Amino acid sequence: MIARRRGLSLRVSLTLSYAGFLVVAGAVLFGVGLLALRFVPSGDLFSQSTGGWAPGRGDLTDVFVKYAWWALAALLVVGLVGGWFLAGWMLAPLGRVTEVVGRADAGTLHRRIALRGRRNELTDLADAFDDMLDRIEHAVAEESRFAANASHELRTPHAVIRTIVEVARADPDGRDVDLVLSRVAETNERAIATTEALLDLARAGRSGLDFAPVDLAALVEQVVADARDGANGAARRGSPSIREERAPATARGNAALLRQLVSNLVANALIHNLPDGGEVAVRTRRAPDGSALLEIANTGPDLDPARVATLTEPFVRAGDRTRAASDRGVGLGLTIVSAIVRSHRGDLRITPREGGGLLVRVTLPGA
Q1: pLDDT digit string (tens) for 247-267?
Q2: Distances in whole angstroms, Cα of residue 38 to Cα of each of 31, 42, 55, 59
Q3: What whole-number distance in Å separates Cα of residue 115 and Cα of residue 262?
Q4: Helix (H) or strand (E) run with residue 174 in it
């Protein structure tokens, strides 16, 4: 916070401005009056209409100056008093803004300014603060929920390892060392996968990334080839087939993150699929407005639209039982995808596919 010297309050400044304006306006009128008196002849004048003598320039000037000073003093008082109340009335909404912002600084994020009236500079300021508080409250709630879920996900593997070790210690004669080591290694790998996914999520959400033209069709070709090699190497029975429709689509983005995005979507489509005879369709194309489109559709069980709307939240899984739990990932794949899309100022749409499965459409700014 910048250290500043205490100055005049805005209300006092506005009050002095109002009073000064009135005094200056009165002084101008005072000068115009003196200028007009110069056209009055000097000395006493004989009035034919009254048959007597009328006051000349000197007499009129003396009277005018005397009462003009009183008028300027009255204008100063009226300007100070009226300006004080007028400034208070105009600045009253700022008091509510300060109150709500102060409560937000103390941790109360549900209060809003909700300033009434027609649109002006103050209502625009209040609406901007309300929008900012909405985003902050949402981010804080999401971060708290994410921290709780992450703590649970990271604590579970360690608790499992501790249980395995305690059981093995309790039965030193009957324990199978190879089985114990295998289970510990499997649980440890899951913990490592969760940690790496959290690091990917933090990297995807940061700013200051290097953007360049990226060919989505080439990325899809590489990721799909790797996915097919992995499926063949694992010799998984009934692995879903992958169908590609690659049309030129160049996006402006970070190549490493966009590869992660395509890889996560393809992996998610392969994992949450039918147990046998499933299919994954990957399409890239260029939209009429120049943006790059990536669409990935997969077969699978029927999904509730309300459930689909939560799939980008951390550690939320599709909930189907077509795959073993160890093959279902850590529940951060679509969360990372959502963070990458946001960092690229793109759009992510996830909808249930007719007949079962998901349809994921990613729109990215074109290069």
Answers
A1: 999 999 888 888 888 988 998
A2: 11, 9, 14, 12
A3: 44
A4: none
Q: Which two tokens stand for residue 174?
A: 């009957």
Task: State both tokens at 163.
Answer: 């249980």
CB 292 within 8 A of CB 336: no
How far is the C-alpha of 71 from the C-alpha of 26, rounded, in Å?
8
Contact status, residue 257 vs residue 325, Cβ threshold 8 Å: no
188-203 in b/e form (b: 16+ CB < 10 A) is eebbeebeebbebbeb
What would the pLDDT profile of 226-241 be if each residue is shown by its tens digit? Answer: 888 766 544 455 678 9
Cα dist from 230 to 186, 221, 233, 236, whole Å: 19, 14, 5, 9
Residue 251: Cβ within 10 Å count: 28
Structure tokens given for 290: 């120049």
Cα–Cα separations (whole angstroms), residue 268 to 166, 304, 353: 35, 17, 14
66/328: higher pLDDT: 66
This prediction's pTM: 0.56
Note every long-range contact of 186-195, with CB atoms under 8 Å and residues 24 or more positions apart, other chains counting: 186/326, 187/157, 187/160, 187/161, 188/157, 188/161, 190/157, 190/326, 190/330, 191/154, 191/157, 191/158, 193/329, 193/330, 194/150, 194/153, 194/154, 194/157, 194/330, 194/332, 195/154
Q: Tokens in use for 121? A: 């500079």
Element (H, E) at 200: helix 177-204
